[in-house]
Design a protein that fits this description.
By secondary structure, the protein is of the alpha+beta class. Helices cover 34% and strands 24% of the residues. The chain contains six helices and eight strands. The protein is globular, with a radius of gyration of 19 Å. The two termini are 25 Å apart. The relative contact order is 0.20.
């Protein structure tokens, strides 16, 4: 199964770049959800594009202006904050159960990773890859009914930006947990989809630091 992830990562290699390791993963439980105001607007659906294409130009502009964007509207930002309150309570309960899963604000390297991941909406599988040059992450954005994955590149940093990958840290119960520590002192917890892949993935990253 991990060889399939390596094949997916190889499709995104640059000329002369060598893949070191790849691992399917998800965010650790309790990793906070970025505020909507920090996310890129979602791509319109195919149906929405078809409807807008049939509207006269003035109506298209009116329709778009009525969409409340929390990045531009105080009312929408307030509504977004209210909508997020149950999530904040859930995250607090999860943190009490599973421990801390992220360190650093949204401007940190860990925050940038989580925001980039959240911007890939409606994805259902992710791959973290390490090469001799960089780290990068992919997400499967194919429709749920489609059996063939469609991978999208959504994040990358130079190899030197990651200080360490610690598999199965002490004090937590999640199987396959990997703490990705960045050189700015921030970190974020991931869970290997196949827990047995966490340790070899961390070991491979340690050998090439």
């Amino acid at each position: 199964m991990n060889e399939e992830r390596r094949q997916q990562a190889r499709q995104f290699l640059q000329p002369g770049e060598h893949l070191i390791a790849a691992c399917a993963h998800e965010l650790g439980p309790g990793v906070p959800t970025p505020p909507e105001s920090m996310l890129a607007p979602p791509d319109p659906s195919d149906l929405q594009r078809r409807i807008e294409a049939r509207l006269p130009r003035q109506l298209r502009q009116i329709a778009k202006s009525r969409v409340l964007d929390p990045r531009r509207s105080r009312a929408a930002a307030a509504a977004d904050a209210i909508d997020r309150m149950p999530d904040a309570l859930d995250q607090l309960g999860t943190r009490l159960m599973h421990g801390k899963n992220m360190e650093g604000g949204w401007q940190s390297a860990a925050g940038h990773f989580v925001i980039s991941r959240a911007n890939v909406r409606r994805s259902h599988a992710c791959v973290l890859a390490l090469t001799d040059r960089r780290w990068f992450a992919l997400a499967d954005v194919s429709p749920l009914w489609q059996s063939t994955p469609v991978m999208k590149h959504y994040w990358e940093v130079p190899r030197a930006a990651v200080a360490a990958v610690r598999a199965n840290p002490t004090g937590v119960l999640q199987k396959g947990r990997m703490d990705i520590e960045f050189t700015d002192g921030s970190w974020v917890a991931l869970l290997a989809t196949a827990p047995q892949h966490a340790t070899p993935f961390a070991a491979a990253s340690a050998r090439y630091r």
